[in-house]
Design brief:
Order of helices and strands: HHEEEEEEEH
Helix content: 25-40%
Number of helices: 3
Number of domains: 1
Strand content: 25-35%
Amino acid sequence: MSPIDYALPVGGIILILLIIYLTGGYRTARIGDLDAARLFSEQVPGFAPKAILVASDGLAALARDTKSGALAVAYAMGDKINVRPLPPGDVAGYRVDGGRSLTVRLNDFTHGSVTLVLDEEPSGRDGGLATWTAALDALTETEKT
């Protein structure tokens, strides 16, 4: 095989990666504290967030509705943010890792779980971690670990 036989595929792959990079293929959306309230109220009809737990890396957020106490989750998927309500039975389980992260497993094949990485255990007006896990308990069909 000649050197051209190796150079063309490698050059093509490099060109494809360059095009993806230049068109924004490697951007990741971030959720800020102020953005989260707006996202939940705009994307979930009738949802007025009372408390919001935003991950320290800005890749996910969990919110509780003012009136009904229902939960909704937002998570980054590339350069977009997906927001969805969590009706009963939509949560397969959750895991708390030492108060530093909360992983919510969803009954959804398109996005199996959402992890909220926390700098510190939540407290104050948004409620502690026990408040969030109690709300998840009401929606969970299976185990809590």
